Prior knowledge:
This protein is 70% helix and 0% strand. The protein has two domains: 107 residues, RNA polymerase sigma factor, region 2, helix turn helix motif (Rna Polymerase Sigma Factor, Chain: A, Orthogonal Bundle); 73 residues, Winged helix-like DNA-binding domain superfamily/Winged helix DNA-binding domain (Arc Repressor Mutant, subunit A). The relative contact order is 0.09. The N and C termini lie far apart (43 Å). It is built from eleven helices and no strands. It is an all-alpha fold. The N terminus is likely disordered.
Amino acid sequence: xxxxxxxxxxxxxxxxxxxxxxxxxxxxxxxxxxxxxxxxxxxxxxxxxxxxxxxxxxxxxxxxxxxxxxxxxxxxxxxxxxxxxxxxxxxxxxxxxxxxxxxxxxxxxxxxxxxxxxxxxxxxxxxxxxxxxxxxxxxxxxxxxxxxxxxxxxxxxxxxxxxxxxxxxxxxxxxxxxxxxxxxxxxxxxxxxxxx
Length: 196
């Protein structure tokens, strides 16, 4: 955003000044990243006020941790990671959406600032729900109770009147089937696959 300022004062210098509690350096870092972080948040949040609040929260947190920052050359990865975690937290608390948490958190493999390369969230959910609907009923139930309701295998076994081993097997087979059938988006399904 403020490339001229970045050229005049290297970000590495701004980081050192920030660690020394320079408000001017903080303002310059804010000007450098706030616009990009807002664009990134809007890709997921869609509500301007909520995206703005996340950006502000990220910079409040940055100021609070300024003296312990380990980054020396760039704050890009740190700031985008903080924004991503804030987005996940927001959706977990407000929408209770495991799909969204998966969608956002698994994007660690991509350049977090390159929003144009991301699969649209709605496309992700549509694919997931369609492929889940093709699974046998028991696998659908076990996956839903495990990943959406947060039940343990023992709780699922009691609820569905199944053995724990059957629950474990059905969860494993169902998640593997999802992963295979959605191979083009397979990185997004690590959230569902990780407990196998």
